[in-house]
Amino acid sequence: MSFSLSLLDKSPIPHGKSGADAFQNTLSLARRAEELGFKRYWVAEHHDMPNLASSAPEALIAFLAAKTNRIRIGSGGIMLQHYSAYKVAETFNVLSSLAPGRIDLGVGKAPGGFPSSTRALQARFDAGRKPSFAEQLEDLRTYLDADGDRDRPHALPRPPFAPERFLLGASPDSAILAAEKGWKFVFAGHLNGDPDNLRHSFDAYQRATGGGTPILALNAFAAGSEEQARERIGDLRIVKVFLPGGQTVSVGSEEQAAEFARQAGVSDYRTEEKIPSVLHGTPATIHHELEKFHRLYGVEEFILETPALSPEERLTSIELIGTTAAEAGLLIKAA
């Protein structure tokens, strides 16, 4: 096998605990991931989610980078539609100056929250002048590359090593956009695991880049036995909300679906309960499934998200996957 493994964390808040507790759990997982030899540790962006603490990945990245030594730390991802591309470039140049050679900038186009939080984040935007996502991505590239144009402000300070850049998406259009703008593409299989969509997105990126292969993000949970993993994953559900105009969104419950529709100002919607796509079983089973993706699509790196179970179960899952990967020569432990 010749692929590497990385991790994605949404900093879930355990029942009865606080955001501070969630961040301490994230720190513990990041440190253990570094010890085991995972390549990257990314944190997500979600707004006004009572069960998730990950509302400001930039701040959390700085904290984690200061508390670790070698593992790459990054965003999975910054929801670019809410922000000035210039400010994002400044922030990640600062982070890359604080932790040279260790910072990843992943960006996405989803809102990362319910309609009310999106309106709050974009309250001062002039809708008529708001650039498209593709325009924002190009602006961000320009600021990060410092093309020397003094008619535009420079995003300072210039770090010794620029942040590595990734576009997160789950469609052929996103794959093509990443290729056109020179960003690495991460297919969000943890959000959309449809096999046909995955294949079309991979094919589009490979054609547009002349053979490049996306990184694949997946949900994964390892336990000591197949039965134990099945039992813990078996009760997980997501609710897909279908809104007028073709918009769809996935939430955690029927109550959240109703609240999303209320904030969106619609009453004509429908829902479907679905079983989330999670690779689960013993670590050997999970590595067998990853190897299948590697052989079928040429995937060279996987970013794994562990479902929001207990902190102990998440840690155990990472340790089981990491230990098996190290034995297979996929992870290189810190000296």
Structural descriptors:
oxidoreductase activity, acting on paired donors, with incorporation or reduction of molecular oxygen; three-stranded antiparallel β-sheet; globular; Luciferase-like_sf; plasmid; TIM Barrel; CmoO-like
Describe it.
Strand 4, helix 3 and strand 5 form a beta-alpha-beta unit. Helix content is 42%, strand content 19%. It has 11 helices and 13 strands. Strands 1-2-3-5-6-7-8-13 form an 8-stranded parallel beta barrel, surrounded by 8 helices. It has a 3-stranded antiparallel beta sheet with strand order 10-9-11, with helices on one face. With 335 residues, it is an alpha/beta fold. The protein is globular and about 60 Å long.
List the helices and strands and how they pair.
Blueprint: E1 4-9, H1 19-36, E2 40-43, H2 57-67, E3 72-75, E4 78-79, H3 85-98, E5 103-108, H4 115-121, H5 133-145, E6 164-169, H6 172-181, E7 184-188, H7 195-209, E8 215-222, H8 226-234, E9 238-242, E10 248-251, H9 254-264, E11 270-274, E12 279-281, H10 283-297, E13 301-305, H11 311-327
Parallel strand pairs: 1-2, 1-13, 2-3, 3-5, 4-5, 5-6, 6-7, 7-8, 8-12, 8-13
Antiparallel strand pairs: 9-10, 9-11
Helix pairs in contact: 1-11, 2-3, 3-5, 6-7, 10-11
